[in-house]
Design goal:
Blueprint (H helix, E strand, L loop, with lengths): L7 E8 L2 E10 L5 H15 L2 E7 L5 E9 L8
Antiparallel strand pairs: 1-2, 2-4, 3-4
Protein name: DUF4177 domain-containing protein
Organism: Nocardioides scoriae
Pfam families: DUF5703
C-alpha cells in the first residue's frame, strides 16, 4: 500500500489551543472502494487518524486528507 499513496504532512491550528497534524494521500483509481475503506480504517485504528475530507477527481483518483490531534505536554516549574 505504500506505492498507492503520495503523502504530505503539515501542522495547523484550527482553533486557539488545538493543533492538528494533517496527512494527505493520493489513491489511484485501480484500488476498489472496499480496499480504500480497509486502508483508511486501519490508519484510523492504529494511527489515531480521522477523515477530514475526500475528493474524487474526474480521472477517478481519490485525494484523501486525514487529521489527528496534537497533544502538547505543558511543563510546570514547581
Amino acid at each position: 500500500m505504500t506505492s498507492a499513496k503520495a503523502r504530505k504532512q503539515q501542522y495547523r491550528a484550527l482553533k486557539p489551543g488545538i493543533e492538528y497534524e494533517f496527512d494527505k494521500m493520493l489513491i489511484p483509481r485501480e484500488h476498489s472502494r472496499s480496499a480504500v475503506t480497509r486502508m483508511l480504517v486501519e490508519r484510523a485504528e492504529h494511527g489515531g487518524w480521522e477523515l477530514d475530507r475526500v475528493q474524487i477527481r474526474h480521472d477517478g483518483t481519490r485525494r484523501v486528507q486525514l487529521r489527528r490531534r496534537i497533544i502538547r505536554q505543558r511543563f510546570s516549574y514547581v
